[in-house]
Amino acid sequence: MKIFxxxxxxxxxxxxxxxxxxxxxxxDYFVIVESEFTHSGDKRDLKFNHKKFEKFKNKIxxx
Length: 63
Prior knowledge:
- The chain is of the alpha/beta class.
- It contains 1 helix and 3 strands, in the order βαββ.
- It has one helix spanning 13-23, and strands at 4-8, 29-33, 60-62.
- Strands 1-2-3 form a 3-stranded parallel β-sheet, with no helix packed on it.
- α1 links the parallel β1 (4-8) and β2 (29-33).
C-alpha cells in the first residue's frame, strides 16, 4: 500500500517545508496542486519553487 499526501499550494513555502519534512518518513508521495487562477477566476503566476524542495524531488508529484 502507498500513502499519498495531497494538497493545494498557494505560495506557503514555510508551511510546505514543515509538512514535507514532518511527513517524509510516513508518506510515499506528495501530490502538490497549484492553480493558474485564483478562486475568483483571475490569472495568477505559479509560485512553487522546485529547486527549494529538491530534496523531495523523487516523492513530489506536481500538477
